[in-house]
Amino acid sequence: MSKPSAMLGRGKAKLAVAAHPMLIISTTSSHTRTTSGNFFDDLMNQIPLPRWAIYVIVAVGILLILLCCLCICIKCCCKGKKKKKFQRDEQINLKGVDGKTSTVLVQPDVVDVDYGSTKVYRGKLLYSLEYNAALSELTVGIKQANNLKAMDLGGSSDPYVKLYILPEKSKTYETKVFKNTLSPVFNEQFTFQLPRSSLLKSTAVMKVFDFNRFTKHQVIGELRLQLGDVDWNHVIEEWQDLAEPAKFEDENLGEICFSLRYVPTANKLTVVILEAKNLRSMDFGGSSDPYVKVQLTLDKRKWKKKTTSIKKKTLNPYFNESFTFEVSFDQIQRVNLVVSVWDHDTVTRNDAIGKVFLGCNASGNQLRHWADMLSNPRRPVAQWHSLLSAEQVNSTLALKKRIPVPNKVKESPLFEKHFK
Ligand SMILES: [Ca+2]
Ligand SMILES: [Ca+2]
Fold first, then answer.
1. Mean pLDDT value of segment 316-340
2. Between the CA atoms of 165, 169, 175 and 180, what dihedral angle is there, to the nearest 10 degrees?
3. pLDDT, tens digit, for every residue of 140-179?
4. DSSP state of 346
């Protein structure tokens, strides 16, 4: 019995187990060696579940872990894309929305970068102007725009035009919004009631905006037309390049009345600052302490300057102060008269309330006053002027390249010493 059992190989050990107790030890030892290599089999045996069920549970577990990883990845990637999606939604929802819709600032301004750069091409606008003197009616047509600057991330804009007349600004019109285009065709007309006398001293402002549903509307560019310069015998229809939007506010700054008198034989220019009214309040408590600077520039340079007394706490000061300058007949053609109203402050720097400039290169109402003075020698000619913001007057003077010296240089003590 023992002989055949000894002949048996390891594979048949189980048969021998029952027959011989000696072999039990050897077989069990060999069995332990096998399970240490196959730990998982043993583990599975201990779980009171069928093999297929265990495999299913493990597979589901791995699948869940993979899904979690995938979710994290997608979340990370989406952060970047969200902004673009926002923009797309905005354009889709634009239908039927006009410019009057109040906007809520949901995301911070992204497109604010271009402000201040002057040489950006902003596109052009086709407008028409017509004045009906019998009805005192000005009709402004906003026809179309071309090649507008793209303000949205997708490389397009949603243009509309705001239109008003300065200085009254009694009415502000808006065209419809055209979504996702840089060449909108507006074809809209707007009428203003404007007597001829105010027409000639008014400015038509056309501002092209980019509509945004969730962020502040951006100015693409603007046109400012001095209506005193327009030949009203014809209907005007023309293209003009949009300019950089003005940084100054179109506010009612007040009016000033002064008289001008030129005596060529005596080489004397006399400016009488009479009064001002409805001045903007600059001080806490709704008042100002106005005074007036009367300045002459000659050949684009600061030349002479005189100042009135300060009137305390009033928005309607009465000055009646006279200033005489020696100006030869040769010089009067090259002179600009700059009249500016200031608010005096004892502690802080004095602020400019508003400004006007007159001279042969002025326009509208200001040019008319200057021309009246020249054509009526020896006679004082008084007139009211609406104040413009100092920035606006300075930019106009600079724009016409009449005063090429930058203001900062002109106000430096060195300049005063050389040119005063
Ligand atoms: Ca837009
Ligand atoms: Ca003050």
1. 96
2. 100
3. 999 999 999 999 998 999 999 999 888 777 777 889 999 9
4. S
Name the residue type at position 68.
C
Angstrom distances, CA of residue 19 to CA of 14, 29, 239: 9, 17, 115
Query: How big is the chain, counted in residues?
Result: 420
Nearest to residue 115, comparing CAs of 219, 223, 191?
219
Find the helix packing angle between 39-46 and 21-37, rounded to 10°: 100
Distance 286 CA to ligand 2 centre (A): 10
Domain coordinates of the chain in residue numbers?
A: 39-92, 120-241, 255-419
pLDDT at residue 75, rounded to an integer:
60
Nearest bound ligand to the CA of residue 181? 1
Residue 404 has pLDDT above 60, yes or no: no
Give the integer Cα–Cα distance in Å for 12 and 324: 135
Highest mean pLDDT out of 60-64, 333-337, 413-417? 333-337
Joined together, the tokens standing for residue 225 give 């037309």
Distance (angstroms) between ligand 2 centre and the Cα of 59 equals 81
**CATH of the domain spanning 255-419, picked from 3.20.20.220, 3.40.50.720, 2.60.40.150, 3.40.50.11540:** 2.60.40.150
Q: How far is the CA of 211 from the centre of ligand 1 (A)?
A: 5
Q: Return the top range by mean pLDDT from 36-45, 77-86, 353-362.
A: 353-362
Q: Are strands 290-298 and 236-241 parallel, antiparallel or unpaired?
A: unpaired
Chain segment 201-210, per-residue pLDDT in tens: 889 999 999 9
Which residues are registered as beta bridge partners of 338?
295, 357
Task: Please state the rounded mean pLDDT for residues 343-349.
Answer: 89
Beta carbons of 355 and 388 less than 8 angstroms apart: yes
Q: Give residue 316 CA to ligand 2 midpoint distance, Å.
A: 14
* Topology match between the domains 120-241 and 255-419: yes
Q: pLDDT digits over 103-114, tens only?
A: 333 333 333 334
Fold of the 120-241 domain: Immunoglobulin-like (2.60.40)
115-to-95, 123, 219, 246, 327 alpha-carbon distances in Å:
28, 16, 9, 10, 42
Structure token digits, residue 411 = 């106000």
Q: What is the reported pTM?
A: 0.43
